Amino acid sequence: MSAPATATPASAPLGHALRSNGLVLQIADHAARSAQILGARLLQSRTALFDLASARDWWTERLGTPAGHAMLLALLRVLLLTLAPALIAEALTRRAITRPHRTIVAYATATLGDTAPATNRPENDKDASEDQAKALRTAAGMESAGPSAVSSNEANADPHTNVQASTAARTTPGQTAGQTAGALASVMSLPHRRVHHWMRLQRLPAALLLASLELLPVIAFGLCAAGVLSLFGASDAPFAESVGQLVDTYVICRIVIAVGALLFAPDADALRLMPLSGTAAVFAQRWTTRIVVIGGVGGALTAAVPLGMTDDAHLALVKIVTLIGHLALAVMILQCRRPVADAMRRSASGRSSLAYLVQWFADIWAGVAVFVVIALWLVWALDVRGGYSELLHAGGISLAVLLVARVVAIVVLGAVGRVFDPLGNRDDISITQRRAYRYYPALRLIATATVWLITLDVLLHVWGLHPGRVLVSAPIGHLLGSALATIVVAIVVAVVIWEAANGAAERRLEAWTDAGDYVRAARLRTLLPMFRTTLFVAIFIIVGLTALSQLGVNTAPLIAGASIFGVALGFGSQKLVQDFITGIFLLTENAMQVGDWVTVAGVSGSVEFLSIRTVRLRGGDGSLYTVPFSSVTTVNNTNRGIGNAAVKVAIAYGADVTRAVDTMKQIGAELRADDQFKDGILSDFAYWGVDQVDGASVTLVGQIQCKDSARWPVQREFNRRLLERFTALGIALANPQRNFVVGLPGARDVEGQTGNADDDGASGDTARASQRTAHESKPRNGQSGDGHGSSGTGRKPS
User: Residue range 121-143: average pLDDT?
Assistant: First the structure.
């Protein structure tokens, strides 16, 4: 008893995931009941359509017994004795008519070949089309028709109807070019049609003679088979009756095929009575033969009735064969849908009033024809009382509904396109209009889907199905309508909020860009993707939870699970969250931009990329630094408008300070007057004074206020000119190193002999200073002095 108690809490979340009276469960329950009812009805229909049990019983009970085997052997004997001489007679007759058949075809080709249809003679069709096109252009005003053209037209006019003259006389100045061209095209087609009619009449005798020859083998087959069947006795009467029905079916099929050959003449273009090309004639004759063969198989099933087949078994087999025939007819329709559609469009090209309707019907005719073919079989197979009249009635209304739906769709889509068309063809549209134009495909799709859903409901109503009425009357319909309305409202509000936020951001971005405030524009452009992502996620979550709640899904577990996941993610990724938060504030405060030279987290470089989490710096040596914002505590940015060129120079002790300062001011004035540097300098050289004095140097400092982009070029150029000018003026720069001369024993004697007294004193001082330095440094190295050191002052640094 403890196991179910422990299983209950585990299954509780699944039980509470969907509300018991929620829309999802009601739709699932309604769909299950509908599927069950539909399955029962389909089972009944299958039983009514294909009652194969009776056919199986007849085969097993009548033909599966020894008596049935004997009956089949007797039937085969009668069949062979009947068909063998009949087929021989047919073959002999066909051989006898081979030469007359060839003679008739050759005669027709020789005498009637010049009057072949234009569709079978490309050169004549090309000439005729060129003449008609020229006449149409002349009538439409595209070409000027001179007196010679008029006289030629009058000479070529039909003497009985005077077609061209009357047409020209009836053309008024106010008549448009298109109307004139259409009228002329329709009038010019009358003689062409009359030639076709006369040509077919000329072909008729030869075609009938050829068809008669084709029927002679069939007649010979039927007469021979009838004669043989009359010789059988009373014992073979049931079998003779069955074979006779097979013979009759064969003869009827051959006659139908011969009639098709009379009309289509796939092997003789000169004897063809139908206005078809050679390829179309072969296609028509091939499918005629296939369908006739399938029908012949169905007719041959009648031969099994005298052998004891029940009416139910016979009807079931005939339904199957008839279904195969209808499916073959549907396949034929699908194979020829494009040529027939093209022929429809060509036929309506000269009639502007019917062109649109014909174009529309050319697109749907194949589907309508296939539907009618299958529907006819269903009505016959289900033995629907008054089925054919109901089918014609519902089919006519359906065509009318489709036509009206097409017109309504054109009006609605045209109105939507008219509203959005000026927006797409203009360059000076506002941001709101440009963003609204993005929804044109979606609105067009919604309008099309709405029109065709309503059309589908009306068509189902015409055919006796009422899904819309069931949804409206049932409680589930009210729930579904309320849920869909709430979801649609939520989506519309979400779209409005999304577009308002994005439109405001883009308008602000455009305003700052037009005003030249590129700094703010760049900062907003950097933050905009993050703001869009955040807003989209928030809207998606709210709309998604609203939709799930309306569909009957319990959203409380989802919210609780998301909260737990968010808390766990926050604890596990504190550094990541800190990166995002710090990055948001740094980007918002415009601490750095792409292209700035900054120092962050102890590294310096040019900013190459800014994301919401990291900044990428390109160092001076080419190295790439990726610094997370959580490591950034201080940002040193040298690109913020001002970059002062600091000047600091140390001259030798005793040099002329005044002269050095005047030189520095002069160099600063020269740089500000230089065309290469004056745009980057904001003020003159500012001398700050003596910064440091020691026994070897005097340090002078100053500054030139520059733009951030000109700081380093100005500072480097100032230092270069300062070095050249001090060198030229003899102003010595301080040397940070000291020069010592180490004296040797007896050096003073040498110097006394070669130098003067002043040199002796200086050298003596230098030697004593060197010896003292050596004496003081020896103990630090762990060595004792050599006793040669002496005290004295050193030489000034050079």
Answer: 43
CA 596 – CA 612 distance, rounded (Å): 17
Contacts of 423 (CB under 8 A, 6+ apart): 429, 433, 434, 436, 437, 440
581-637, which class in CATH? Answer: mainly beta
Q: Which spans in 301-386 are helix H?
A: 311-335, 337-347, 352-381
Instruction: Work out the pLDDT band at 688, boundaries 50, 70, 90.
Output: very high
Longest dimension (CA), the chain: 174
Q: How far is the C-alpha of 726 from the C-alpha of 663, rounded, in Å?
A: 8
Chain centroid to CA 771: how far?
A: 93
Between helices 352-381 and 337-347, what is the axis angle to 10°?
Answer: 140
Tokens of 118: 């234009």
Compute the CA torsion angle 162, 164, 170, 171 (nearest 10 deg): -170
Spatial neighbors of 64 by CB under 8 A, at least 6 apart, are: none
Tokens 């005044």 locate to 658
Residue 175: φ, ψ to 5°: -70, 135
Torsion angle (degrees, nearest 10) of CA 692, 695, 697, 700 = 20
Query: What pLDDT is stored for residue 351 in this prediction?
Result: 61
Token duo for residue 609: 């990329």
Pick 616 or 26 by higher pLDDT.
Answer: 616
CA distances, 268 to each of 98, 200, 288, 397, 539 (Å): 15, 14, 17, 43, 73
**523/515 Cα distance (integer angstroms):** 15
Q: Does residue 284 surpass a pLDDT of 60?
A: yes
Q: Which of 444, 446, 424, 442 is nearest to 433 (CA)?
A: 424
> How far, in Å, CA of 239 to CA of 247, rounded?
12
C-alpha distances (whole Å) from 216 to each of 46, 52, 213 are 44, 40, 5
Chain-centre distance for alpha carbon 400 = 34
Residue predicted with more confidence, 199 or 640: 640
Which two tokens mark 3?
């196991």
pLDDT tens per residue, range 437-485: 778 888 888 888 888 888 888 888 887 776 666 566 666 667 777 788 8
For 645-729, give the CATH class: alpha beta
Question: Angle CA(307)–CA(310)–CA(315) in degrees, nearest 5?
Answer: 115
Note the pLDDT tens digit of each residue in 719-777: 999 999 999 999 999 887 666 556 656 555 555 554 444 444 444 444 444 444 344 43
Scan for tokens 């509203």, then name that residue.
419
Average pLDDT, the chain: 73
Strand bridging mode 614-618 / 624-628:
antiparallel
Return the percentage of the chain with pLDDT > 90, whole number: 11
User: Which strand ranges, in their side-by-side order, compose the sheet holding 624-628?
Assistant: 624-628, 614-618, 603-610, 597-600, 635-637
Mean pLDDT check: name the lowest of 143-157, 370-384, 567-581, 746-760: 143-157
- The Cα–Cα gap between 717 and 314 comes to 112
The CA distance from 329 to 290, in Å, is 9
Between CA 457 and CA 444 the distance in angstroms is 20
- Cα 264 from Cα 211, distance rounded (Å): 11
Pick the range with the lowest mean pLDDT from 246-260, 456-470, 638-652.
Answer: 456-470
Question: b or e along 169-204 (b: 16 or more beta carbons within 10 Å of the residue's beta carbon)?
Answer: eeeeeeeeeeebbbbbbebbeeeeeeeeeebbeebe
What DSSP designation does 173 have? T
Q: What is d(CA 195, CA 187) in angstroms, rounded to the nearest whole number? A: 14
Nearest residue to 652 (alpha-carbon basis) of 641, 640, 644, 660: 660
464 phi-psi bin (left φ>0, alpha ψ -120 to 50, beta other): left
Q: What is the pLDDT of residues 525-554, one digit of tens each?
A: 777 877 888 888 889 988 888 888 877 777
